[in-house]
Predict the structure of UPF0462 protein C4orf33 homolog.
Amino acid sequence: MRNLNFDSHGQHLLLLLCGRRNVWKQELDLSFKVSKGDTKWEGKAYLPWNYFPPNVTKFNSYAIHGSKDKRSYEALYPVPQHELQQGQKPDFHRLEYFKPFSFNTLLGEEWKQPESDLWLIEKYDL
């Protein structure tokens, strides 16, 4: 699991997690590009293939906008409304709400994910 956050000033946070909330690696290098217009900004992050563990099968994406009492949270696959508890805070680690994902859908059925030395070698350091 990976956690990535960056803002219009280029600040970002990239974590590799082992399970739920267990930070395994942090402050990883990241190539990104940010452009800001009059009313919005756009950010693109370029994640090296070795940051992805083998056989990624589920995915979710999150965004946080604003600050203090104007802060809002978005999720590609949010917790369903009927499952929210009163006073519940946003939680980006709810793996049960991630949805099936395949890189092959984006890159073609013949595409094979490159092996990652990071996950093959260091998986024993968990």
User: Anything to note?
Assistant: The chain has two domains: 1-52+112-126, 58-101. The mean pLDDT is 80.
